[in-house]
UniProtKB/TrEMBL annotation:
<keyword id="KW-0347">Helicase</keyword>
<dbReference type="InterPro" id="IPR027417">
    <property type="entry name" value="P-loop_NTPase"/>
</dbReference>
<keyword id="KW-0547">Nucleotide-binding</keyword>
<keyword id="KW-0233">DNA recombination</keyword>
<dbReference type="InterPro" id="IPR001650">
    <property type="entry name" value="Helicase_C-like"/>
</dbReference>
<keyword id="KW-0234">DNA repair</keyword>
<dbReference type="InterPro" id="IPR011545">
    <property type="entry name" value="DEAD/DEAH_box_helicase_dom"/>
</dbReference>
<feature type="domain" description="Helicase C-terminal">
    <location>
        <begin position="484"/>
        <end position="640"/>
    </location>
</feature>
<dbReference type="GO" id="GO:0006310">
    <property type="term" value="P:DNA recombination"/>
</dbReference>
<keyword id="KW-0067">ATP-binding</keyword>
<dbReference type="GO" id="GO:0006281">
    <property type="term" value="P:DNA repair"/>
</dbReference>
<dbReference type="GO" id="GO:0043138">
    <property type="term" value="F:3'-5' DNA helicase activity"/>
</dbReference>
<feature type="domain" description="Helicase ATP-binding">
    <location>
        <begin position="291"/>
        <end position="461"/>
    </location>
</feature>
<dbReference type="Pfam" id="PF00271">
    <property type="entry name" value="Helicase_C"/>
</dbReference>
<dbReference type="Pfam" id="PF00270">
    <property type="entry name" value="DEAD"/>
</dbReference>
<dbReference type="InterPro" id="IPR047112">
    <property type="entry name" value="RecG/Mfd"/>
</dbReference>
<dbReference type="GO" id="GO:0005524">
    <property type="term" value="F:ATP binding"/>
</dbReference>
Amino acid sequence: MPTPNDGPAIAPDQPPLTALPGVGAKVAEKLAARGIESLQDLWLHLPRQYEDRTAITPIGALVPGMAAQVEGRVEAVERGFRYRPMLRVAIGDDSQATLVLRFFHFRSQQVNQFRVGARVRCYGTPRPGHHGLEIVHPSYRVLDEHADEALGERLDPVYPAIEGIGPASLRRMITAALERLPDEVALELLPAELRRQLHLPSLREALLTVHRPPPDTDLNALLAGTHPAQRRLAIEELLAHHLSLRRQRLAQQAHAAPVLKKGALAKRLQAALPFKLTGAQRRVFEQIRRDLALSRPMLRLVQGDVGSGKTVVAALAAMLAVESGKQAALMAPTELLAEQHLSNLRGWLEPLGVRVAWLAGKVTGKARTRVLEEVASGEAQVVVGTHALMQQGVGFHDLALAIVDEQHRFGVHQRLALRDKGAGGSIGEHAVVPHQLVMTATPIPRTLAMAAYADLDVSAIDELPPGRTPVQTVALSAGRRPELVERIRSACAEGRQAYWVCTLIDDSDEVVAQAAQTTYEELSAQLEGLRVGLVHGRMKATEKQAAMRAFKDGETDLLVATTVIEVGVDVPNASLMIIENAERLGLAQLHQLRGRVGRGRAASNCVLLYQPPLSKLARQRLETMRQTQDGFVIAEKDLELRGPGELLGTRQTGLAAFRVADLIRDADLLPRVHEIGERLMETSPELAARIVARWVGGAARYAAA
Ligand code: ADP
Ligand code: MG
């Protein structure tokens, strides 16, 4: 795959890693396995922790949970084998307190070192044990009886482990790499004026501070990741990612795309729909229509809450391609969802004479051959499917619009793989590529959208179709489960349907499937006379679909399910949802699940069952769910509640993982980054390219793919 922009990730004047002492071919290979291929990668392999060995804490002053260095004399040694080998060493100091060092793995040589009376200096995190505080597996040293042992002068960095390389050698390597840091001017890429404005240290200073913090460094800030040195690194990294996405976008837009101007078919579809488009749907479709009329590829993300009606907007867009004699493809992350799209699209489009084809993993043999022929000949005007659409052997006649639903479930690679189908799989410089429309029901806060989607235009369908009644949400402790059985009975007696969602903290499919099976049996017994269905991830695709379809067609009253129903499934007659262990789910997932009800006219209810006691965080999440149904509000709250450290990973945003930056902790930097990025793109594209190469480099394959 061509990487159109980025210059060399390794500056030409950088020696290979094997030039460092102690780094042979073998070690270099292990480093490379972790993406460390240059000196620069080592500079950017930042500590994940620090240990403060600059002082000694009296044993009596230790605080449980707070790491510290202590020094004392061995008072007693006990070697035991009760359940497994164990070594316990009690040490005491002038503070008259005793600390137990406990080892589960040790050699006899180690045991011999701990003679009663020996001086030991150790470091670790004390926790309450059977006999006062203890440290399990401290790092320690037995000191010479009389020598005056110096204390550390700096905080000790602890690096993320690299398989096959011990922590001490890794530290040595990084130290050696840091000795080769260029001087301040040679290393710096951020304009001086900008650094002054933002009070940021130079890159050299920032790296040295982070790797070798002087003793007076604010350790709390360092550990929280908010030290100016870290902010400096974060801002450059965020900037690099932003620039990479923007440059990617420019590269994309250098391609040509088919001009799709004919709108009569879309008008006919609109007129034939059983409902009127909402204002938001009309506005977003209008944006898409304008994009498609241009000869450069559209790259548009449509964000819209569950049930906001994204599918029909996609169908309208597809009509623009079809009327121009070209094809559109719609890809969904699950077979169930793709099937639902298929049936919606067939219902809407076949009366207009548009041929809709179906391609999923389970389409095999003759049927598959036939579909592939239709896709290749152009007879199939709209193709709906799953990942199967991107497989080898699938060749389109003339793909003009690639639509990806629930895009957060796909990586950026997959989205681009579908696009590449339109250009015969390889993209030359002046290739004609399809327009891309991606849809998501996972709203992400504005600040994050800037970082995640800098390569896309974003539209929001921020209005629900009329006639929806808000879902009444309550949180109940699991003890009240019996009442719910009655509630289900009465809802179903009125001809409505209900979901019972089983979740567990253990997300192994098997365990969850088992729980769902058990719940299914219990509820079937308790709700005699009602028709109960079951869907879980361990069922065969055909069984799953049969159960789902039976529910959709009203042949079952209650559907016991795991979170496989999470995405996109639409059963307007379902008006009651019960979610077990709701306290264990994140806000985004709860919101997605709840979106399955409240799709029809009947007033809907959602019951969040929880296992008391609730943590403060879980309580806040459930409270948020009770208070609002607005996906954007929930997303903001989610961001706030997650707090630092809990990265929004690739899964949620499609973003690559960062080395230093944390989208949540550093969210306040994003508008700045955006602004600086735009300025640099304009005034110093050369510099922008170097910043991208430094931070994103080869790892940007995802962003640059
Ligand atoms: P989502 O945005 O979650 O993908 P869907 O496209 O599945 O939502 O739409 C949810 C339901 O709303 C579908 O049954 C769809 O036919 C219906 N719908 C879409 N637009 C409208 C509208 N303007 N008025 C009434 N119903 C609509
Ligand atoms: Mg949808």
